[in-house]
Amino acid sequence: MAEGVGEEKKKFSIWDLPDVPMGQLPPYLELQRSRVSCNKDAPIHIESIQYSGAYASMGIDNSSQLDRFSNNFRVEVVRLNEDDMEFDMIGIDAAIANSFRRILIAELPTMAIEKVLIANITSIIQDKVLAHRLGLVPIRVDPRLFDYLSGLIHFFVDGLSEFMEFTPRALGNSLLLSLSIVKNDQPNEKNTIVFKLHVQCKRDSLRITVKSNALKWLPNGSELVKETRNAASDSSSKPETYTYFGCSQETIPEFVKNPIIPKYPDIIIAKLGPGLEIELEAHAVKGIGKTHAKWSPVATAWYRMLTRIDCNYIEDDLAEELKSKCPVNVFDIEVLGKGRRRETVARPRASTLCRKCIRGDDWEKRVALRRVKDHFIFTIESTGALPPEVLFTEAMKILEDKTRDNRALMMLLIWLVRMREAMDSLLIQGDFLAS
Amino acid sequence: MEHGSFTDNSAATFSLTDEDHTIANAVRFTLNQDPRVTFCGYSIPHPSEARVNIRVQTTGDPAREVLKDACQNLMLMCRHVRSTFDKAVEDFRASNAVKAMKIDSQDSSGDDSEESE
């Protein structure tokens, strides 16, 4: 049957026919697999077809081996500023892109004010409202230089995953980590930043606005003295404050030239009338966005899929009409010879998918609005603690760490099951020997 | 942690604590890509409790081995994404620096010869 359908003059083999080449899907299935069709009523084919055997009956392997992924994956940076960036990830699936987005928003640690020790507020703003506002002020400091305060859960998980590897180094590490749990139980220079706010409005002056540049960094720790019950003890030594700084934070090399200040100096915190005063101390600690949104390092992070518009052979008057329809000027007219004009898609990235181009009679048949399922345009807006490219790298590290912890747990499970099977077989042998 | 039959290793439900959609969806994606898997899915029994149940059914291999390999693949994917991203940022910065230099030299020489990418 594989012989060519041969005439004497024109011999051709059936394999020369323009059919579906082996190993590839027919075009309409490829469209379903890789594009979201955004129709007038609703988008279809939105689910990404992940199952490795989805096209098994056609003999096509849908599984993405790691080397195929590595070859096809690309990143292109479009815009990179100090505070925000936009880049394209091509060849990745929505599940992983969404994981990165979730980690960027909720699981990257930052420093934010958590405890506010109030000495005196005569302003009309309530204590709790002022404390809440102080918590939301972003602080320009690299959170990787600090530890969690009494981070029992975090240290335990890290230690446990290393412990799973069952090496002496891992056991030693887990012991060290358990020691550091004890050390980090109290606010010291490794896990707390202390700010002071003392503003007074004189009796005869106008109202003043307290802005975030009024927060002064105290590198030596808290200055408020704790009240001790026994007045007899420690009357000569240093009075106990609310933090236990071993050394000044100014000695840490990263802070020598850049003091820790709020990122934006003009955030309004409170307003004071004449004769009113605010005196307080604020302690900032490390946390993640899951606990409270003040610890989220991004203003926001989002992604969208690239739009691909197919408008074939729209000419002359229809072309003019389509070009004028689009509110963001996606289309352009290309002049062919003999006075004919044809429509081209000039700026597909600018498309907001407003669907104006497919509204009206028959336009849906001429213009196909689709989204590419594996091309993600990521935008990250940082609040200032870390630059956005560092944020994304840290997010990937966190996903890697989470999977490593899970894998370590799986390896422990496999080991335990093997131990149990070995014990069972020993018992059976023992019974056999005994009998 | 693993709920399955003692005799049949190829199907099991793994219950992970302190996890949510972030890791469960990513692991489910890599599990799907493995040709040994016939069925995989995840569910969150209650949204207030941070617990994820991942169900894996395979064509004969023990389910925990398949899950371990899926986690391994996900880790390698993350590493590859990270290195590609770092390189892309470096390239972007380098090309921007070249562009800035070109603009400076354009003012002085007044001749635009190459096009930077």
Automatic annotation (TrEMBL), chain A:
<comment type="similarity">
    <text>Belongs to the archaeal Rpo3/eukaryotic RPB3 RNA polymerase subunit family.</text>
</comment>
<dbReference type="GO" id="GO:0006351">
    <property type="term" value="P:DNA-templated transcription"/>
</dbReference>
<dbReference type="GO" id="GO:0046983">
    <property type="term" value="F:protein dimerization activity"/>
</dbReference>
<dbReference type="GO" id="GO:0005666">
    <property type="term" value="C:RNA polymerase III complex"/>
</dbReference>
<dbReference type="InterPro" id="IPR022842">
    <property type="entry name" value="RNAP_Rpo3/Rpb3/RPAC1"/>
</dbReference>
<dbReference type="InterPro" id="IPR011262">
    <property type="entry name" value="DNA-dir_RNA_pol_insert"/>
</dbReference>
<dbReference type="InterPro" id="IPR036603">
    <property type="entry name" value="RBP11-like"/>
</dbReference>
<dbReference type="GO" id="GO:0005736">
    <property type="term" value="C:RNA polymerase I complex"/>
</dbReference>
<dbReference type="InterPro" id="IPR036643">
    <property type="entry name" value="RNApol_insert_sf"/>
</dbReference>
<dbReference type="GO" id="GO:0003899">
    <property type="term" value="F:DNA-directed RNA polymerase activity"/>
</dbReference>
<keyword id="KW-0240">DNA-directed RNA polymerase</keyword>
<dbReference type="InterPro" id="IPR050518">
    <property type="entry name" value="Rpo3/RPB3_RNA_Pol_subunit"/>
</dbReference>
<dbReference type="InterPro" id="IPR011263">
    <property type="entry name" value="DNA-dir_RNA_pol_RpoA/D/Rpb3"/>
</dbReference>
<keyword id="KW-0804">Transcription</keyword>
<dbReference type="Pfam" id="PF01193">
    <property type="entry name" value="RNA_pol_L"/>
</dbReference>
<feature type="domain" description="DNA-directed RNA polymerase RpoA/D/Rpb3-type">
    <location>
        <begin position="84"/>
        <end position="409"/>
    </location>
</feature>
<dbReference type="InterPro" id="IPR033901">
    <property type="entry name" value="RNAPI/III_AC40"/>
</dbReference>
<dbReference type="Pfam" id="PF01000">
    <property type="entry name" value="RNA_pol_A_bac"/>
</dbReference>
<protein>
    <recommendedName>
        <fullName>DNA-directed RNA polymerase RpoA/D/Rpb3-type domain-containing protein</fullName>
    </recommendedName>
</protein>
Automatic annotation (TrEMBL), chain B:
<dbReference type="GO" id="GO:0046983">
    <property type="term" value="F:protein dimerization activity"/>
</dbReference>
<dbReference type="GO" id="GO:0005666">
    <property type="term" value="C:RNA polymerase III complex"/>
</dbReference>
<dbReference type="GO" id="GO:0003899">
    <property type="term" value="F:DNA-directed RNA polymerase activity"/>
</dbReference>
<dbReference type="InterPro" id="IPR036603">
    <property type="entry name" value="RBP11-like"/>
</dbReference>
<dbReference type="InterPro" id="IPR022905">
    <property type="entry name" value="Rpo11-like"/>
</dbReference>
<keyword id="KW-0804">Transcription</keyword>
<protein>
    <recommendedName>
        <fullName>DNA-directed RNA polymerases I and III subunit RPAC2</fullName>
    </recommendedName>
</protein>
<keyword id="KW-0539">Nucleus</keyword>
<dbReference type="GO" id="GO:0006383">
    <property type="term" value="P:transcription by RNA polymerase III"/>
</dbReference>
<dbReference type="InterPro" id="IPR008193">
    <property type="entry name" value="RNA_pol_Rpb11_13-16kDa_CS"/>
</dbReference>
<dbReference type="GO" id="GO:0006362">
    <property type="term" value="P:transcription elongation by RNA polymerase I"/>
</dbReference>
<keyword id="KW-0240">DNA-directed RNA polymerase</keyword>
<comment type="similarity">
    <text>Belongs to the archaeal Rpo11/eukaryotic RPB11/RPC19 RNA polymerase subunit family.</text>
</comment>
<dbReference type="Pfam" id="PF13656">
    <property type="entry name" value="RNA_pol_L_2"/>
</dbReference>
<dbReference type="GO" id="GO:0005736">
    <property type="term" value="C:RNA polymerase I complex"/>
</dbReference>
<dbReference type="InterPro" id="IPR033898">
    <property type="entry name" value="RNAP_AC19"/>
</dbReference>
<dbReference type="GO" id="GO:0003677">
    <property type="term" value="F:DNA binding"/>
</dbReference>
<dbReference type="InterPro" id="IPR009025">
    <property type="entry name" value="RBP11-like_dimer"/>
</dbReference>
